[in-house]
Specification:
Oligomer: single chain
Distance between the termini: 180 Å
Number of strands: 23
Strand content: 15-25%
Structural class: alpha+beta
Number of helices: 21
Helix content: 40-55%
Radius of gyration: 55 Å
Amino acid sequence: MSINPLPMRYPRLKQGITFYMSLATLIVFLLMASVIVFVSYQEYKSAFYVYGNDLCLSAVAVASYAIDGDMVEHFAQSHAIDDEYRQFAKKLDGLKAAINVKYLYILVDNGAPGMYTRIYDATHNEEFPEELYALGHNDSKVNYIGAERVLAEGVGFEQAEYYNDPDGYGELYFAYAPILNSNGDIVAFIGADVDIAPMHAYLNEYRNHIVLTLVVAFVLFAIVFFLSVRRLVTRPVKYIIEGANRLSNGDVALNLPENIVYENKDTAALGNAFENIVSSITRLLANIHIIMHSVRGGDLAARADSNEFNGEFRSIIDAVNNTMDMVSQHFNAVPEAIGFFSTDGTLRSANQILGDIVHRHNLTDAERLLTVLAPECNISKELPRYYTEVSFKDSSEEIHCYALTVLYVETYGDIYDDYLMLMMNNISSLMHAKTEAEIANRAKSDFLSRMSHEIRTPLNAVIGLSQIAKSSRDIGKIEDCLENIEISSKHLLGVINDILDFSKLEAGKFTVDESLISITTSMKNAASMIQSKLSEKQQTMELRIENIQNDGIFTDSLRLNQVLLNLLSNAVKFTGEGGEIGLSVEEISHKEDGRSVYSFAVKDNGIGIDKSALDRLFNPFEQATNRYGGTGLGLVISKNIVTAMGGEFFVDSVPGKGSIFYFTIDVRSQADAGDDSRASIKEDREIPDLTGRRIMVVDDIEINRIILNEQLKASNLEIDMAVNGREAVDKYLAAPDGHYDLILMDMQMPVMGGCEASTAIRNSGKVDATTLKIVAITANVMREDVNKALESGMNTHVSKPIDLDELYNVLRSLL
């Protein structure tokens, strides 16, 4: 009889299945129960804490509204523990009991750094005497978290704070709220502490029941866990926890063991997810590290690929890239050329200015740029600095100069490479300015040398002829000496006038005074004035006045004659004996606005001027040749005068055949000049008879007083002398009204100058103070000096050295 083994084994199989199913069900049940109980415990606990939080906030809010802020402000100022205060404290004690708080207290900021003053503390009825926690007691600010914000902003806590006081007050919630007076001002803050120890007692009792209920479940769970789950869950979680702790400490070099995830898909997914987190953080840090390493080494072009990341990681990489873009833009905006090189000379990065220099000068080997710019540069840590100057020509052959500095930059780290920083400054303008300054300095030195010669030559003649005249008894010889002294003096005066005119031009103070003159008369006068020089060299001159429709012009006759005489004097000087000089004027156009353009020309058949000399002919302090002397300023001054008259200046010359200087002026014009007395030729000196007239000569230099006295004797004037302005004023005030007809006043004198003396006379209040004639006699011939003399009350101005004809004309017109 055969036995079927299946029925015998089936109950065991069923029993085993039932056992395992029951065990599994129990475990699942216990787990679910544990989770539910745990969650309910947490929610219960959270509800208790929320309740305590709300209770504390509500209590402090109710208390702040129930308290009279004006009374609090009064107690804060009075600091008196009287019946009124005790009644106030008793009410607050009742309020404390009503709102069910453990502690209630009021504090104000007493102005002392870090300190508050207590106005009220409910504990004075319980544990502490009234004197300790009542008015005037100070506590440190740091004990009242958030109190500063309450006092400053007038808002209470958004969430009460919890603390377990180590001094025995218990487990408390505390909160603060502002106390306002009737004006709405914050005068203090109130604090309320709620005891949460009863809540903790309830929580502890609930927790004990839960623990007792779950002990058996956890024992069974522990058995199952350690037998079957530990291998699948605990070990992976352990590794992940360890990895998370290491990750939080900045250690991202982490790989989970492969054998902990090969059996369970969920555990493998958890491990893989954690590895992905670590990998993403590692790649993020690696990209940032690469960028920072590149920047540290002088390469500003490094960027990370943000497409490798998602979410916040991509935002971080984009922010780093954008920051580097901004740094590069600022780097390119630096106004000097900067480049970074590796220590072997390879270019790492450069700003836009250096790139422009490379492009401008075709420095195509950019990788070896440092070798091209500074081939002798050999720096190291020991020799960390190199400086030189380099020059290049651009495509237009213009030379550009640069100051070049190379610095060795040590990065102080094994993972970073040292590098070289190159800086270049364009000093072309400085070099050009230096060259021009050197040229100008040499020109001025040459000019000063020539001026020394030009000034010393007539001075030598004056001094030498004076000595000859003093030692001679021959009247004829003495007269010759005096005549030559006068000629030399006038030459010296011409040199000085040229220098003064040029000084005015450089200072921008050169002016043109317009008046109506006859152009025909001016031309004849100029031709007449040069006749003596023409006769000396047996030269002839042709004067041509052509197509003059408007003879009257409004211009500065003295300046026009100065230009004509400068050109005529040069023509005579640079033309040999028997040569020919030409002077011409022509009206070339007349405009509807009443202005005409005139063309003047001075022509000679002298030595001429070569092309190289023509290019510098109108440069200050330069001459076409030094053989004939002179200041080298005549043509510069003439050209500027013509320009001031609205005209242009030209010159044509052929070496060996002669030159022609011509210029135009654009001036107002009319048919005739009428009575042009200003342009007439000066006739022989006529000495006026001034018998009965009294003048005062005021000058601090005795020889000047003597010269004026001798020069004016022939006019029969009565002359008094004064050595300074103070003496002149005193003499005038002491004299009767009308005693003096005129005063010749020097401007620069000790004690009191001429302008001060003139002002004092005009303001003296005497009958003739405003009618007395005062004439400035001075070597100050600048326009501002003339204006200063006139503003001080003087009638006119005569310059030194004195032209006797001019002085007689002034005396004749004023007396």
